[in-house]
TrEMBL record:
SMART domains: Molybdop_Fe4S4. Residues 14-65 form the 4Fe-4S Mo/W bis-MGD-type domain. The lineage of its organism: Bacteria, Bacillati, Actinomycetota, Actinomycetes, Streptosporangiales. It comes from Microbispora siamensis. The gene is nasA_1. Keywords: 4Fe-4S, Iron, Iron-sulfur, Metal-binding. This is Molybdopterin oxidoreductase. InterPro entries: Asp_de-COase-like_dom_sf (IPR009010), MoPterin_dinucl-bd_dom (IPR006657), Mopterin_OxRdtase (IPR006656), Mopterin_OxRdtase_4Fe-4S_dom (IPR006963), Prok_molybdopt-oxidoreductase (IPR050123).
């Protein structure tokens, strides 16, 4: 069995520890030895189904990497130099006080991440609103799950990525994946689709012929930005061919007539002209789903990351509702969460419009409850702030923040229109970054704070099925490294907060989180670390009721709206915010590759992964490359209205001739997000990462260097 090795010793008293992979929302089980060797933890019904992907196998390699930060850094004369913790935190606290005194609390902003543990996400939101008094807090999960969350809230009254256990998918005869490529993003997930795949019931919606699409019985390849039209066409086919579940629609939903008035105009032949997907294939998709004894519709980033992402996900939910899938055992709709704690990270208060327990920050009752737990007056809590890109875009402007604290994110690479974001960061009076390595964002910071990694601390995460997991400390951190909780505690105290208000022990923080979430949509009050240590499988909500075993399956009796019914959404196709034209005739789409994760700040420092995919590339149809004067292996410039990306050409015959694909894990001139469009969904404020207009040409000699 292969293993990744860290040369740094563990605590002498600690043996092999069962823990979880640090990457995607599957949170696969692994065992980490005292020597830092990772192996699979095989347990019945474990999300990993007894396997790890290449990223998981090599996750421990970064623990002993020479790229690790082990001492604070402070900018001095244009360069970062080592400093003591006392100097670094003293500088941060002093500058925050000065900036706040001059410009008010909203002059200081906080940017978090969907990989932070529940405890960190909770304390970070509390730190922003209590220690800083700022409304300017958001996180990179706004770039991942926000459209699906908004669509689920609208349809069901509650958002949980998968409102059923992951293992339920193992009994599915048919699964439609819209905008998902789990063969590369979360490979162990595919084991749960084996039955549907073998039965010829796997349908994949993706403009590319991905490794996931290769496994499908039916691959639907719409033009980028036309996913909503395709969903309307399949819904039309289902209704017109007599596949509507009339009893379910009448008994458990509202709004079908309004939604049908829109979908009635999108007959499959019309949809074929817009999307390029054959009308016969639309009807076949409707038949596969409706005739299956157990069927699921699952969406992911490809459906969400659009300026119409909420409506697009809503259209796929409409299809699931019309077929009577949600809220029934063995069927349903769900969203494949991306980041490791993408679910829990958006539930506990680091999002601009939320308080812990998935409460709305503008709800007086929610404010009163959380303020009571925090020991402050409700009036002292700020209101909603800017969403992620709007926050980054406002940095250093006359009306925006002039200081930013970043925890668990690398927006220089991961944010859309990334050149603009880098300029905004450079305009700040103070940039503080807490990270494990010197990421591209950390390189621009005034103060860099070295923090612990996943295997060096305890904490909880909530995986894609809404199950709360305890990730255990397995190794001692390097000398001089602190946890995020310790950093927040120390800064809060230096800013005048009582020490007990910001505990640094993760179990103590979780106990407070339980109280803050109690009675909220995401109720964790009945979850304890002792229950998790004992191996209980607890899916939220878990109220404090004695003996409550959690809620693995939501909506079986009723949906979360007051009347108990799900809502159809009357949504219509509008197309991408930036369609191709004569100047920029191609669609550019972005995504992940098997070997790398998010901005690549971690995986690009793992030799096995970096060697496998060392640089950015652009996938393009051979004919499209030839027309641009390019061949396989050539260096191309992919230019759009906001910038250009330099990448090596990969000719892929299965690509649509009007589409190019860029992975988004790489820095500098290889950043895919130099060209992506920051156009925002009006509801979720999700940027349109998945489609923008570009042109392709040979890179100049200077650009290629």
């Amino acid at each position: 069995m292969r293993a990744a090795t860290s040369t740094r010793p563990a605590d002498a008293a600690v043996g092999a520890v069962d823990t979880h992979c640090p990457y995607c929302a599957l949170q696969c089980g692994m065992t980490l030895s005292p020597a830092g060797r990772a192996s699979v933890r095989i347990r019945p019904r474990d999300p990993s189904a007894g396997g790890l992907c290449q990223k998981g196998w090599t996750a421990a390699a970064l623990l002993g990497s020479p790229a690790r930060l082990t001492t604070p850094l402070v900018r001095d004369g244009g360069t970062l130099r080592p400093a003591s913790w006392d100097e670094a935190l003293g500088l941060v606290a002093r500058r925050i006080k000065e900036i706040t005194a001059e410009r008010g609390p909203d002059a200081v902003a906080v940017f978090g991440g969907g990989g932070l543990t529940n405890e960190k996400a909770y304390l970070l939101g509390k730190f922003a609103r209590v220690a800083l008094g700022t409304s300017q807090v958001d996180y990179n999960g706004r770039f991942c799950m926000s459209s699906a969350a908004a669509a689920a809230h609208r349809a069901f009254g509650l958002d949980r990525g998968l409102p059923f256990p992951l293992a339920d998918l193992e009994g599915a005869d048919a699964v439609l994946l819209a905008g998902a490529n789990p063969a590369e993003t979360m490979p162990p997930f595919l084991s749960h689709l084996r039955r549907a795949t073998d039965a010829g019931g796997l349908i994949v919606v993706d403009p590319r012929r991905t490794p996931t699409a290769e496994r499908a019985a039916l691959h639907l390849a719409p033009a980028p930005g036309t996913d909503l039209a395709l969903a309307l066409g399949i819904l039309h086919a289902a209704v017109a061919d007599g596949r509507l579940d009339h009893a379910y629609v009448a008994d458990r939903t509202t709004g079908f007539e309004e939604a049908w008035r829109v979908a009635a105009a999108w007959w499959p032949e019309r949809v074929e002209r817009v999307t390029g997907v054959a009308a016969a294939d639309q009807r076949r998709a409707a038949a596969i789903l409706s005739e299956a004894a157990s069927a699921y519709v699952l969406t992911a980033r490809g459906a969400e990351q659009h300026a119409t992402g909420v409506d697009t996900v809503g259209a796929w939910i409409n299809l699931a509702l019309a077929l009577g899938l949600p809220g029934r055992p063995g069927s349903g709709w769900g969203c494949l969460t991306g980041q490791g704690n993408g679910q829990g990270g958006r539930e506990h208060g680091q999002k601009a419009d939320q308080l812990p327990g998935y409460r709305r920050i503008d709800d007086p009752a929610a404010r009163a409850h959380v303020a009571r737990v925090w020991g402050v007056e409700p009036s002292a809590l700020p209101g909603p702030g800017r969403s992620a890109f709007e926050l980054l875009d406002a940095l250093g402007t006359s009306g925006g923040p002039s200081a930013l604290l970043v925890f668990g994110s690398n927006p220089v690479v991961s944010a859309p229109h990334s050149a603009r974001v880098a300029d905004r960061l450079a305009a700040l009076d103070l940039l503080v970054v807490a990270d494990i390595v010197l990421s591209e964002t950390a390189r621009a910071a005034d103060v860099v704070l070295p923090i612990t990694q996943w295997a060096e601390e305890d904490g909880t995460l909530t995986n894609l099925e809404g199950r709360v997991l305890l990730r255990r400390r397995a190794l001692a951190p390097p000398p001089g490294v602190r946890t995020d909780l310790e950093v927040l505690h120390d800064l809060a105290v230096r800013l005048g907060q009582p020490p007990e208000r910001f505990p640094s022990d993760p179990e103590t923080v979780f106990t407070e989180l339980r109280a803050a979430s109690e009675g909220g949509p995401a109720d964790y009050s009945g979850v304890t670390w002792d229950r998790l240590r004992a191996g209980e499988r607890l899916h939220w909500p878990v109220p404090r009721t004695p003996g409550h075993q959690g809620t693995p399956r939501l909506f079986l009796d009723r949906f979360a709206h007051p009347d108990g019914r799900a809502r159809f959404a009357a949504v219509d196709h509008r197309g991408p915010a930036e369609p191709p034209d004569e100047e920029y005739p191609l669609y550019a789409i972005t995504g992940r590759v098997l070997q790398h994760y998010q901005s690549g700040a971690q995986t690009r420092r793992v030799e096995e992964l970096r060697t496998a995919v060392p640089e950015a590339y652009v996938e393009v149809h051979p004919d499209t490359a030839r027309r641009a004067g390019l061949c396989d292996g050539a260096t191309a410039a992919v230019a759009g209205r906001r910038g250009r990306v330099i990448a090596t050409v990969r000719c892929v015959p299965s690509m649509r001739p009007d589409v190019v694909f860029l992975p988004f894990h790489f820095p500098g001139a290889q950043r895919a997000n130099l060209v992506t469009n920051p156009a925002l969904d009006p509801v979720s404020r999700m940027p349109e990462f998945k489609v923008c207009a570009v042109r392709l040409s040979p890179a100049g000699e200077r650009e290629a260097q």
